[in-house]
Design goal:
This protein is of the alpha+beta class. The protein is built from 13 helices and 24 strands.
């Protein structure tokens, strides 16, 4: 979604191991998307499998889909249209109620070619788990070619479900197949739904065509990778150009786009510049800033962004901003700028779930309303569904943003090994006192010739200097020498006590 007057460029940096996409509006980076080749997985892929072995005792079968290990198909995941037209999920429920599905050996046989879809990735020594009920995911809909019903996600408000179902029914017509409306469809226009239906039907037609031409153990359909999702999900009316720095991927994407999304494909360009494409807008620097806690505002104020498992908190501070005539105006202008920056940071970092914003306290009600209006105006640009409340009694604004994928920090970072993700480490003095207590504890259990402390330079320096008297006193008390050894590779909280 782009606001009127917004000019958008999409830059794609491709490498065999990783694809990175930046959405730039009026010169400012608004979104970053990253996909790593090794982390894509197989779930959603459709294969023409070959039944390698049927196991009646386990009511399952092993299917060759061209991977190192045969994949696993259980009878509960074999799609079969009975009198009631049950789906595999309904059959599993029926099985739990004492009704038994038709035995697997009466449905498939060894050597048979069969269309299957991966529903669980291979893990360790276990092969992939399969289903014969095929579903193809779009941006707003999931297509079920073997069914004829239209389902609606339970996360969509009950009062909207019937109207959405009727709209899709009318748009889908009588061409066959069923659909499930995803939560993304809640605010979709008829044009967006129609585009998704057209894409899904075309994808299914190509899958069936490939099944008739390719040999068993062939890949028939793969969930879209990030490059293809750029054309399907990210291109809007304001998109001027989609520039990609790989000639090979440019041609692959152009072929895909011309078949499924010709309007988006027309904006595709191969970037041939000598400078790396992400250098054009300083995007690598922007990524580094998006991983930090502190976000500087042009006025001199700043935001502090903290992610926890339960929620994200954003604290607004005036910093050195004292340019306005009075303090109320200073606070108001800082909060207005913060409202714009917060909406951008949510998109840039892909923060989801509950977000609590602590704006600087404002005494005037009209200032509060203006800041809320600006925040909501900026949030309206977000392609991900967001909602925000008013100021609470404590002066906080609570908002939610739908989780669509891992946040940028979770994708690119891991918990700090030095602090175990706490965000702080114990001081050198705290660690030094831990060491002194540990030596005393071990002296009561063991009788070595000498204790040697191996620790980070800051801890050793403290023991040699300010804590030297305490160290000497402990050595006299236990009657053993204590030597010190610096180890630069150790973290600030790590140490070892060696018994010599």
């Amino acid at each position: 979604m782009t606001m009127a007057g917004m000019q958008q460029d999409i830059l794609i940096n491709w490498a065999p191991q990783e694809t990175r996409v930046a959405v730039v509006e009026n010169g400012a980076v608004q979104e970053i998307h990253v996909e790593r080749t090794l982390e894509r997985g197989l779930v959603g892929n459709v294969y023409l499998g070959k039944v390698a072995r049927v196991l009646p005792g386990m009511q399952s079968a092993f299917i060759d889909i061209g991977l190192d290990r045969a994949a696993f198909l259980h009878v509960a995941d074999v799609w079969q249209r009975q009198e009631g037209g049950e789906t595999p999920a309904q059959l599993r429920q029926a099985n739990g109620n004492g009704q038994v599905p038709k035995p697997i050996e009466k449905q498939i046989f060894e050597g048979q070619a069969i269309m299957v879809q991966v529903i669980k990735d291979p893990i360790g020594t276990k092969g992939a788990r399969l289903s014969t009920q095929i579903s193809i995911a779009g941006r707003m809909l999931v297509f079920l070619p073997q069914d004829d019903h239209i389902g609606v996600s339970q996360k969509i408000a009950p009062d909207q479900r019937d109207s959405l179902r009727s709209r899709v029914q009318a748009l889908a017509g009588s061409a066959g197949g069923g659909f499930i409306l995803r939560t993304n469809a809640e605010d979709a226009t008829d044009a967006e739904l129609a585009d998704d239906i057209a894409y899904l039907r075309k994808a299914w037609a190509r899958t069936r065509e490939r099944a008739g031409k390719l040999p068993p153990a062939s890949l028939l359909h793969q969930d879209l990778d990030l490059l293809q999702r750029v054309l399907r999900d990210l291109v809007g009316e304001g998109t001027q150009a989609i520039r990609i720095d790989s000639n090979e991927q440019f041609h692959r994407l152009m072929t895909f786009g011309r078949e499924f999304m010709p309007a988006a494909a027309a904006r595709l360009q191969h970037y041939k510049g000598e400078r790396p494409i992400f250098d054009l807008y300083g995007i690598d620097d922007e990524i580094l800033r998006a991983l930090g806690r502190r976000v500087e505002l042009k006025s001199g104020g700043y935001l502090i962004v903290d992610q926890t498992e339960a929620l994200t908190t954003i604290d607004v501070n005036t910093g050195g901003f004292v340019g306005a005539r009075n303090f109320d105006d200073t606070i108001f202008k800082t909060n207005l700028e913060a409202a714009q920056a917060i909406a951008r940071q949510l998109r840039l970092r892909n923060l989801g779930g509950i977000v609590i914003v602590d704006f600087i306290d404002m005494s005037r009600e009209d200032h509060q309303e203006a800041v809320l209006a600006e925040l909501r105006r900026q949030l309206a640009r977000d392609r991900v569904k967001t909602s925000s409340g008013s100021f609470s009694q404590l002066g906080l604004v609570e908002m939610t943003r739908k989780r669509t994928r891992e946040s940028l920090a979770h994708l690119l970072c891991q918990p700090c090994p030095a602090c175990d993700g706490r965000g702080v480490v114990r001081t050198a003095r705290t660690v030094a006192y831990d060491i002194l207590r540990e030596i005393l504890r071990e002296a009561r259990q063991f009788n070595p010739r000498e204790f040697r402390v191996v620790a980070a330079p800051a801890v050793i320096e403290l023991l040699l200097d300010e804590e030297n008297q305490h160290l000497a006193g402990l050595s006299d008390f236990i009657g053993k020498p204590i030597s010190l050894q610096t180890e630069a590779a150790l973290g600030p909280e790590q140490y070892d006590i060696v018994l010599l």
